[in-house]
Amino acid sequence: MSLGNATKIISNTFYLFLDWLALTFGGYLFWIIIGKSLSPAEIGRFSTIFSVSMFLVGFVGLGINAAMMKLFPYYEKKNERTRIAGTFWWSVKTTVVSSLVFGGVLWLSSPIISSVISITRYDVFLIFLIIFATNLVYITNSYLYGLQRIKLIFTTDLVFSFSKIAATFPLVVLGLGYLGPIYGLLFSSFVILASRYKTLPRGGGPVEKKEIWFYSLPILVSTAGTVFVNQGSILILSIISSTVSVGLFSLMFFLTSPVKMIPQLISSGTFPLTSQQSEKYEKDSMNRIFYYGIRYSFLFSVPVLVILTAFPEEIILLFSSEQFVQVAGIAPILAAAYLLVGMSTVLINTLYATGRVNETRNSTLIGGFVNLVFSLTLIPLYGLYGAAFAFLASGFSMAIYSGAKVKKKLSLIFPLRDIFRITFAAVALYFFVVYSSSLTDIWLITSLLGLLVYFIILLESRFFKETDIRMISYIKSKFPKLLQPIFDRILNLISRFSD
To answer: Is 198 exposed, middle or buried (0-12, 13-18, 19+ CB in 10 A)?
Structure first.
């Protein structure tokens, strides 16, 4: 990987990581507020409204935001700023019209929807507002992401996170129940739109509608798969089970989600460059970007999975109350599922960035179909465990299909030797934390010591390479001088044990 590409990927991923920290920290505070203040039934009501909204967002958005993320890096490289402006404002107008038309249909259908998932007509109206606001946020996010203005995404998402918490907490305290987090979410969505407004392009320009629809329509078709992968289990639970079950499952579903977020971050950091390289078909550069994307995704996700698997009850009590401990048993299943879904994201985004839109569509459709079939089959028999296993089957099917297509269509190389080393270190980490937990009740200290064991085993297995050293050196330059000696010690240690 060239130093220029590596630096850009690290810069993108660095700010995406900060963005993830901001959203995750805000998300956990948000769930602490509702987890410790609302009953499982109220959380189930909130989760149902939110899940239905996210289920419909992709359809209403018509896949346009994904097309922007694909095309804008290419336009930017050719310095076609007027084309970017024209495409952006056409996308905004199209999304607004689509949202309003869909809102009318949704309201007319509200009596049927209310009877199927046991919500009120006012809840249906709230679903429309969430869809409308979320699609506008997605459009602005795609614009900034396509131009690789990741630092701005981070700062505005930070505003979003804290405004959501600042609005939700007093509303919950005032006794608004499940409406508190809904209103908080809506408020923060309009705050982030206001904070991004001055950064948006002015004027207009040419719009290649045919090109936009070429990339957006397959995503629109695959939306059904995407939403059933991400929200299918919760949606099926909300139809055939109680709001209490939905609330219990939703909390564990959220707490295990960091396993997926790490590959998503890395994939997002590499996507614009992969898209640019694919236009020139620089095979060697694409291969290196993909190789290290998979490698780092696995490296950082697996220890998170192990800790979530080893200490589910402790993590639940940290963020909620004892009434949620009963779902601790599904944590290992959901964490493993999230790992597969996260790795699938890297594979699917690689296919999409290189123009393989049909394979992208098929991957998500397969995952969504598997989740739907397994959820309908297993939830009536095994309840929350059935929902967790359905999600696991969905992630597995997507990973197998997309991995095979990447190998066949692009002939990219998978870091199999490094995956084996990471797996070996992860097994050692698991046995260490499980054994150590019998000696101390402080699970956080045990986890930190386990991560040290994980790192030492990777060092001894000669896992680290020259590219890792260059990347850590770049990350060091982003930190204050006071902290840089720590990075120097890490670099010296890795250099002694690197290949």
So the answer is: exposed
Number of DSSP helices (H) and strands (E) in the chain, helices first = 20, 0
Q: What share of the chain is helix, strand, coil (3-state, %, to 5)?
A: 85, 0, 15
> pLDDT per residue over 328-356, tens digit each?
889 999 999 999 998 998 888 888 777 78
- Residue 343, phi then psi, degrees to nearest 5: -65, -35
* Cα within 13 Å of Cα(244), Cβ side: 4
The residue among 23, 146, 19, 149 whose CA lies nearest residue 83 is 146
Do 384 and 249 meet the contact criterion of CB atoms below 8 Å apart?
yes
**Burial class (CB within 10 angstroms; exposed 0-12, middle 13-18, buried 19+) of 200:** middle
Query: Where do the structural domains in the chain lie, given as residue ranges?
Result: 3-414, 464-499
Cα 480 to Cα 204, 476, 477: the distances in Å are: 41, 8, 8
Across 29-40, b (16+ Cβ under 10 Å) vs e yields bbbebbbebbeb
- Is 204 in contact with 89 (CB distance < 8 Å)? yes
Per-residue pLDDT of 209-236, as tens digits, reads 888 888 787 777 777 677 777 777 877 8
Q: Which amino acid is present at 434?
A: V
Report CA dihedral (39, 375, 357, 135) to the nearest 10 degrees: -20
Token output for 51: 């899940």
Which amino acid is it at 51? S
Supply the pTM of this predicted model.
0.73
> Exposure of 268 by Cβ count < 10 A (0-12 exposed, 13-18 middle, 19+ buried)?
buried
